[in-house]
Amino acid sequence: MLSSLLIFSCGINEDQISEKKHQQQINQWHEERIADLEEKDSWLSLAGLHKLEDGTNTLGSDSSNTIIFPPVAAPDIGTITVSDSSFVFTVEPGVTVTKNGLKVSSPQELQTDAKGTATILKQGRFLWHLIERRNATYVRIKDINHPNFDSFTGIERFPVSRHWRIKATYHPFDTPKAITIPDVLGEGLQDSLYGELRFTLNGQDYTLSPLGNPEAEAEFFIIFGDQTNGESTYSGGRYLYANTPANDNITYIDFNKAYNPPCVFTSFATCPLPPAQNRLDINIEAGEKMYQATTK
């Protein structure tokens, strides 16, 4: 999903971009974001999140299973055996499970999302794979025919304005600083800060702490809160990306690209929340508003 959030970052004189060109760029970014959410394996498809335990974990819709799938899945799908950081799936006889479109017949070692591309398995309308979060491994289940798709008609947003496209100066730290990013699970994600972004908005000076190493990555990831949270925007803050700076340490923060975390669409996401220093004492009336499901 992240790739669709990165557009028009090259070959543009950032100081001279016109209001019309800027609006076109933001509108196209928003259209691509909506298109991503309408994909069958998007955040709207999440249908379960279950922690794996050591030993044998059974999967299926029957209530006797360790990992309980939604009711329309097969009663018994198979097992995932956890041993010494290894995860092996064995299909239940008579049940059709596929990997990359091919039927699974023998035990399959599963790769988690922490080790590259996670192994994706499919049974009927359900996809699932393993994710690693906070020193634990979970089964993430997706339903390609989830009712969420029927109630998704887009996301309301504030009017696009260049006022919210802010020139910022990046100030690197002498050495990276450790940070704990809070999350909706009540736990925290350990990460590193390599510097801070400083900018002026409405005559006031502000700072944001972005995630990402500018010497190794093309973009910063920013988790921020503001005074609209809990009113017109999601109470848990919003996300956005900004290009990492060139040698002049100048970049732009475009709050028109502020977007909702996955947790607004599903209770099965593990969303990070804004750290204390990224809660801005101002109304950022730009980007996506609070998501409201509707009936098509």
Provide a brief overview of the structure:
This protein is mainly beta. Helix content is 6%, strand content 35%.
Key traits:
296 residues, mainly beta, Tumour Suppressor Smad4, six-stranded antiparallel β-sheet, five-stranded mixed β-sheet, 17 strands, disordered N terminus, DUF1684
Could you explain the architecture of this structure?
By secondary structure, the protein is mainly β. It has 2 domains: 2-38 and 154-278, no CATH class; 43-151, Tumour Suppressor Smad4. It has one helix at residues 19-37, and strands at 46-51, 55-60, 67-68, 78-83, 86-91, 98-99, 102-103, 108-109, 121-123, 126-133, 136-143, 165-182, 188-201, 204-208, 219-224, 238-243, 250-254. It has a 6-stranded antiparallel beta sheet, with no helix packed on it. A hairpin with a 2-residue loop joins strand 4 and strand 5. The two termini are 24 Å apart. Pfam families: DUF1684. This is DUF1684 domain-containing protein. InterPro entries: DUF1684.
Q: Which helices and strands appear, and what pairs or packs with what?
A:
Blueprint: H1 19-37, E1 46-51, E2 55-60, E3 67-68, E4 78-83, E5 86-91, E6 98-99, E7 102-103, E8 108-109, E9 121-123, E10 126-133, E11 136-143, E12 165-182, E13 188-201, E14 204-208, E15 219-224, E16 238-243, E17 250-254
Parallel strand pairs: 2-3
Antiparallel strand pairs: 1-11, 2-4, 4-5, 5-8, 6-7, 6-9, 9-10, 10-11, 12-13, 12-17, 13-14, 15-16
